[in-house]
Amino acid sequence: MCFFKIDIELGFIYIDMADLNIGINDMLQLTFADLKLMIQNRDSKLVITDQLSRYILYASYLSMKESSFLNEKKIQAECKQSFYVCNKSIQVLKDGGWILEEINSQDRRIKNILPTKKAINSILAYEQIKINSLLSTRDIYEPGNSITLNIEDLIEASESQLKEMSDQILRDPSEN
Predict the structure, then answer these.
(1) Model confidence, pTM
(2) What is the DSSP string of 5-18?
């Protein structure tokens, strides 16, 4: 048996991939839908479609989860991009409220890049949407899941519908 373990902030979901019969074609379809969403929304302020910006966003989240540090130098080295290109993406993400920069306590010359609550909620929601997309091909739905959207829902949505979905996902549960 091959189990696929997904960390969704508060716990784990174990999916037996053999029982679901998820294969390369399912993964190709998921990647295709993801690419379609990025291309379709490349001018939207609600969807981060730039590859480097998406990388920085996810890297900041993973660094936070692993209690490690992410900074511009590390991004430059890992992505093999210039200071200018990385700095521009970081600035766009900062201006959009996706990341914060904090002075490194061990070396005050370095700024650590941290995800905001908006970024964390968006990443977790989007990963849940991708899970939903995979599971929906087998008519399986995760019980107790507060996010029921899949990638096709996002592709078919207008800009105003995307805004509504985004607002709903990012809304603080204590406000209900």
Answers:
(1) 0.77
(2) EEEETTEEEEEEHH
